[in-house]
C-alpha cells in the first residue's frame, strides 16, 4: 500500500513518510481557526463542519444566549461556564411566569374596560319621588 501526496502526487511507502513530506513541503490543508493540518480538502471540510471552524455562529447557548458555530462549542461552553440543564429549566420557568403575569394583567385591564363601558352605557334611573 502506498500513500500519495494529494498536492504533488509523490508516493510514499508509509504514512509517516507522507507526513514528513507534507511537513517539509507544506503540502497540507490547514484549518485557519485551530491550525490543524489535513491531507485533503474533504478532511478539512469535515473538520470545519464538525467543529464549526470557519463557519458563522448559528448555535445558541440556552442559558446565556451566546452564539457558537457548532453544537460541540456550545457543549464546551456550557461545561466551562457550568451552565446546567437546571439553569435552562429555571430560565424557561421564569419566562413562562412572566408571560402568565402579563396575560393576567391584560385580562384584568380588559375586564376593567368592559366594566367601565357597561357602567357608562346604562341609562340613569330616575330617583324615587317619595324620598
UniProtKB/TrEMBL annotation:
One of its GO terms (molecular function) is zinc ion binding. It comes from the Eukaryota. PROSITE patterns: ZINC_FINGER_C2H2_1, ZINC_FINGER_C2H2_2. The keyword Transcription does not apply. Keywords: Metal-binding, Zinc, Zinc-finger. InterPro entries: Znf_C2H2_sf, Znf_C2H2_type. Coiled coil: none annotated. Residues 80-103 have a biased composition (Basic residues). Residues 78-131 are annotated as: Disordered. Residues 3-34, 59-88 form the C2H2-type domain. Residues 104-118 have a biased composition (Basic and acidic residues). This is C2H2-type domain-containing protein.
Amino acid at each position: 500500500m502506498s500513500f500519495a501526496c494529494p498536492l504533488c502526487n509523490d508516493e510514499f511507502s508509509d504514512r509517516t513518510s507522507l507526513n514528513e513530506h507534507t511537513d517539509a513541503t507544506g503540502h497540507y490543508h490547514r484549518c485557519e481557526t485551530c491550525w490543524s493540518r489535513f491531507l485533503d480538502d474533504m478532511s478539512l471540510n469535515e473538520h470545519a463542519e464538525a467543529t464549526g471552524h470557519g463557519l458563522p455562529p448559528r448555535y445558541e447557548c440556552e442559558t446565556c444566549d451566546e452564539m457558537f458555530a457548532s453544537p460541540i462549542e456550545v457543549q464546551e461552553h456550557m461545561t466551562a461556564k457550568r451552565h446546567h440543564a437546571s439553569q435552562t429549566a429555571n430560565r424557561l420557568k421564569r419566562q413562562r411566569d412572566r408571560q402568565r403575569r402579563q396575560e393576567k394583567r391584560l385580562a384584568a385591564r380588559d375586564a376593567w374596560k368592559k366594566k367601565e363601558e357597561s357602567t357608562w352605557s346604562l341609562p340613569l334611573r330616575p330617583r324615587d319621588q317619595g324620598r
